[in-house]
Amino acid sequence: MYALNSIVFSYKSSNRIIIVNFVKLQEIIQISHIKKTYVIGEETIHALKDVSVTIHKNEYVALMGPSGSGKSTLMNMLGCLDSPTSGEYILNNISVAKMSDNELAEVRNKEIGFVFQTFNLLPRASTLENVALPLVYAGFSKSEREKRAKEVLEQVGLGNRMNHKPNELSGGQRQRVAIARALVNKPAIILADEPTGNLDSKTSIEIMGLFEDIHKNGNTIILVTHEEDIALHAHRVVRLRDGLVESDLPNEKIITYKNRLETTNNQ
Ligand SMILES: Nc1ncnc2c1ncn2[C@@H]1O[C@H](COP(=O)(O)OP(=O)(O)OP(=O)(O)O)[C@@H](O)[C@H]1O
Ligand SMILES: [Mg+2]
Asked: N or C, where is the chain less crowded by C-beta within 10 Å?
């Protein structure tokens, strides 16, 4: 796939010269003919039947589909938390199947940030400790961990909630902590499985504003949602049905955080 990078106009006497510069979009995720089969007792479940998708650097993709269509299974695969029964996954031009356990752990920790519907925060740890945790595994010193965790907490608007425990925060704030934790290792890819599933609509819009900023900062985002109005924030919508890609289309009517605020205020 190619994108128009820049158009340079220059003038040479009366002749106009137009230089059009195309850059190749960088493929970050390439999955081909992925199958995932679960066998439970006598029953075989074909969670993913034959899924092929290519995602480029800095794309913002919504993954939709009915319950049981394979969205979380695919996200687990993309996040290297699970491996496919067959098919190939190329991440950053490297075949995931050929990675050693250490390489996989490193990819999971440094290349990919996860955000879940239920936040998955440590209940007894403070906001700062929750966000700093992935940096422990990445081998940073305590002062570096705190410095970096504070920076991302400021970025998600929680600079004034560093010492609160999760149960002392609102749902939206908890999800911001989880997003800060996903960002703390500066991963290229953010995978979010129904990040607004437990939030009211106003808080959901705020969280979508945060994803918009993260996307503008250069991250690749893949976000599972059941809600059409949440999916409209993404730039591309992939729909799964019964373990297959039903459609994969650009979003022609992208909604921004600003648009949403205006519509909400006019209601
Ligand atoms: N660990 C597992 N063992 C056995 N079957 C599983 C497992 N995980 C998922 N499945 C089955 O695979 C299918 C796809 O599940 P998946 O969780 O990917 O769906 P989903 O699209 O995320 O649904 P939802 O919208 O409800 O979250 C379902 O039929 C589910 O029951
Ligand atoms: Mg799911």
From this structure: C
Does the beta carbon of 73 lie inside 6 Å of ligand 1? yes
Query: Hey, whose CA ends up nearest to atom 3 of ligand 1?
Result: 38
pLDDT, tens digit (0-9, with 9 covering 90-100), for 113-151: 999 999 999 999 999 999 999 998 888 999 999 999 999
Q: Give me the residues paired with residue 223 across strands.
A: 62, 192
Nearest to 112 by CA among 33, 190, 32: 190
* Span 210-249, pLDDT tens digits: 999 999 999 999 999 999 999 999 999 999 999 999 999 9
Ligand 1 pocket test, candidate residues 34, 51, 71, 78, most atoms within 8 A of CB: 71
Dump pLDDT digits (tens) for 47-72.
999 999 999 999 999 999 999 999 99
Q: Quick check: CB of 157 below 6 Å from ligand 1?
A: no
What's the rounded Cα separation, in Å, for the pair 67 and 58? 27
**Domain covering 55-80+98-266: architecture:** 3-Layer(aba) Sandwich (3.40)
Q: Is the pTM of this model over 0.85?
A: yes
